[in-house]
């Protein structure tokens, strides 16, 4: 479509916007130029009729090729459009990637490295032995997250006012979560690892500054994963000891703050991590006497974990047999250069629609979790191609604190997760009912947990290695963690990202920031697979019959 034809149709588009999307009409009046009009036309087509996706795609290349400030333009659009379609947001973002690819990679510059020790206390800090739950994750890649906060402040204000508060509140928080300042160690002679704790423990806190575009980085559109690498810290190691937590706070002057964390998975699961972050944020806002601290402070008694099946010995043996190198190595984020990441959001009504389709196909009343994961699993199999009868694999974890007999406290510190494995034929997943078949398969495994979470538990580690070897899709995070509740006083996070999924091939899950009951899914894929998945996601949801 030419610029001239857009000019010819501009008045028609303005009238359409006025009657169909008055919120977009206001933007047209304020921005009477061709690239803004093209974007508004794309949004209009999706707002009026989802089957007009082809027209929306037709409008986008013009929008992306007739402006030198595409990044700024799309950032404003993606941020402020309250009634936007999430599907077209992702599509616009993917098209935008072709323009943004030539932009420089702004690496954050570390200005200060601080050793933050737990605030002194009168009680001892005993070392913490790992349980069989922890051993399952001993060789996992560290979990790396970013929390983006919109907080327009200067670099000077951040360094001289906000950073000292972050240091102090972190020290107070580590007083309660002291193992996170310790180090993971493996003794000689095949003894099990432990978290070694002493009065000299500390956590590295980096203070950094970035000249990158905060609003673009915190968007949902597809982006080069390398743009995020300098925002997360690495874990230090020395000999047979490995730090278990590192933190970085990066200021984007006059835009926002990004808090990045790197956590060794053998030390804590998502529930413990979320409790730590919420406690830190609460202390930062209200001090050590914050009213909501009592329910989050960790429970350390390892005696509540019963090992009647001898899983600890089995897992220690498996770790030795399945690993070529037992040393604790430093991990990095160096990966392929063609990987992009994007976030896809399922609204609550979309999840309800998917669940209704699953019920009509299989009679199963699956959960929103199963519906979302099933849709994404089928979409990724479709994106990667293939029509064979070989099996596809999907792995996820289930919380076991409430499943143990007797149940253990919800604030138990450490890992308490079971491994769940799902299989389905590739030929079934790429069919028109693929998302429904995938969701049903996941739901059946979830329902089987009612008979006990420890069925086949002796094979958990072997299954992890098996699934890794066949490139299974796995899950990082959970909508139940409530990461959008982590408020340091800057408001809720604008965006939460699990950066480490690019190393594990996992999808990340979080609750929707914008709607209760929605689910955010993060993906990191080769660019050609991302393009295929975007098409699958948009087309799959556009044809969905939504409940009223």
UniProtKB/TrEMBL annotation:
One short Pfam name that applies is Transferase
* InterPro entries, per the entry: CAT-like_dom_sf, Plant_metabolite_acyltrans
The UniProt keyword set, sorted, is: Acyltransferase, Transferase
Gene3D superfamilies linked to this entry: Chloramphenicol acetyltransferase-like domain (3.30.559.10)
Annotated GO MF terms? acyltransferase activity, transferring groups other than amino-acyl groups
Protein name (Swiss-Prot/TrEMBL): Phenolic glucoside malonyltransferase 2-like
């Amino acid at each position: 479509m030419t610029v001239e034809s857009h000019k010819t149709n501009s008045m028609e588009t303005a009238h359409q916007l006025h009657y169909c999307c008055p919120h977009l009409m206001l933007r047209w009046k304020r921005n009477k130029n061709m690239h803004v009009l093209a974007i508004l036309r794309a949004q209009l087509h999706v707002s009026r009729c989802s089957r007009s996706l082809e027209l929306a795609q037709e409008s986008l290349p013009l929008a992306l090729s007739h402006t030198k400030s595409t990044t700024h333009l799309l950032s404003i659009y993606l941020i402020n459009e309250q009634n936007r379609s999430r599907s077209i947001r992702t599509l616009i973002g993917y098209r935008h990637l072709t323009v943004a690819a030539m932009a420089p990679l702004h690496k954050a510059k570390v200005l200060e490295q601080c050793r933050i020790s737990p605030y002194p206390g009168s009680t001892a800090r005993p070392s913490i032995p790992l349980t069989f739950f922890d051993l399952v994750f001993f060789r996992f890649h560290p979990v790396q997250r970013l929390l983006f906060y919109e907080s327009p402040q200067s670099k000077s204000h951040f360094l001289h006012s906000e950073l000292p508060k972050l240091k102090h509140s972190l020290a107070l928080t580590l007083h309660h979560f002291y193992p996170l300042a310790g180090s993971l160690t493996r003794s000689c002679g095949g003894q099990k690892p432990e978290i070694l704790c002493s009065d000299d423990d500390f956590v590295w806190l980096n203070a950094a500054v970035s000249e990158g575009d905060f609003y673009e980085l915190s968007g949902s559109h597809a982006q080069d994963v390398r743009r995020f690498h300098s925002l997360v810290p690495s874990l230090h190691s020395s000999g047979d000891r490995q730090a278990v937590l590192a933190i970085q706070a990066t200021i984007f002057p006059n835009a926002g703050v990004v808090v990045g964390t790197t956590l060794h998975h053998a030390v804590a699961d998502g529930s413990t991590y979320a409790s730590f972050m919420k406690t830190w944020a609460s202390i930062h806002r209200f001090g050590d006497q914050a009213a909501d601290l009592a329910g989050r402070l960790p429970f350390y008694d390892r005696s509540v974990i019963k090992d009647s099946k001898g899983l600890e010995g089995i897992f220690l043996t498996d770790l030795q047999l399945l690993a070529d190198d037992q040393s604790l190595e430093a991990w990095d984020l160096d990966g392929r250069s063609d990987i992009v990441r994007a976030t896809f959001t399922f609204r609550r009504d979309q999840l309800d629609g998917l669940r209704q389709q699953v019920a009509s196909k299989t009679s199963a009343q699956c959960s929103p979790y199963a519906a979302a994961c099933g849709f994404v699993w089928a979409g990724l199999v479709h994106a990667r191609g293939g029509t064979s009868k070989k099996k596809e694999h999907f792995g996820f974890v289930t919380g076991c604190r409430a499943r143990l007999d007797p149940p253990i406290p919800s604030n138990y510190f450490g890992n308490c997760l079971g491994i769940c494995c799902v299989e389905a034929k590739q030929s079934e997943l790429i069919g028109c009912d693929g998302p429904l078949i995938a969701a049903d398969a996941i739901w059946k495994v979830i329902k089987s947990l009612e008979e006990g979470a420890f069925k086949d538990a002796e094979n958990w580690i072997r299954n992890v290695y098996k699934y890794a070897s066949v490139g299974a899709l796995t899950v990082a995070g959970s909508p139940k963690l409530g990461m959008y509740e982590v408020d340091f006083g800057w408001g809720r996070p604008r965006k939460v990202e699990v950066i480490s999924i690019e190393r594990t091939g996992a999808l990340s899950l979080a609750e929707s920031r914008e709607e209760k009951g929605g689910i955010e899914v993060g993906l990191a894929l080769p660019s050609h697979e991302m393009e295929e998945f975007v098409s699958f996601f948009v087309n799959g949801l556009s044809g969905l019959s939504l409940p009223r």
